[in-house]
Design goal:
mainly beta; 6-stranded mixed β-sheet; 4-stranded antiparallel β-sheet; 115 residues; 10 strands
């Protein structure tokens, strides 16, 4: 069974940093492109970042470029999102997702940016 367990969220002040982790299981992680998506309160899902299967290609939504860094460790079946210079508008539940999946499989991790 394909599973994702997201972690690393929390409450942080504007300008702070967090590192999100996603533990993947139930499939050959190293062969899939992965993404981080987020859902802010009262809003729909927003794609945040993409990384290809070997980690050699990444992409970001304009609003996080230069602040967020996606990475992966295929030996550990782990996906990461380093988030720096956080802003209140980054407040959301963050999920990891395979590019090929049409729905979310994890419970997400809450990120709250507030003073």
């Amino acid at each position: 069974e394909v599973q994702f367990v997201e972690s690393g969220g929390g409450l942080v002040q504007p300008g702070g940093s967090l590192r999100l982790s996603c533990a993947a299981s139930g499939f050959t992680f190293s062969t899939y492109a992965m993404n981080w998506v987020r859902q802010a309160p009262g809003k729909g899902l927003e794609w945040v970042s993409y990384i290809n299967s070997d980690g050699g290609s990444t992409n970001y939504v304009t609003s996080v470029k230069g602040r967020f860094t996606i990475s992966r460790d295929n030996a550990k079946n782990m996906l990461y999102l380093q988030m720096n210079s956080l802003k209140p508008e980054d407040t959301a539940v963050y999920y990891c997702k395979r590019t090929t999946d049409s729905y979310l499989r994890g419970q997400g991790t809450q990120v709250t940016v507030s003073s």
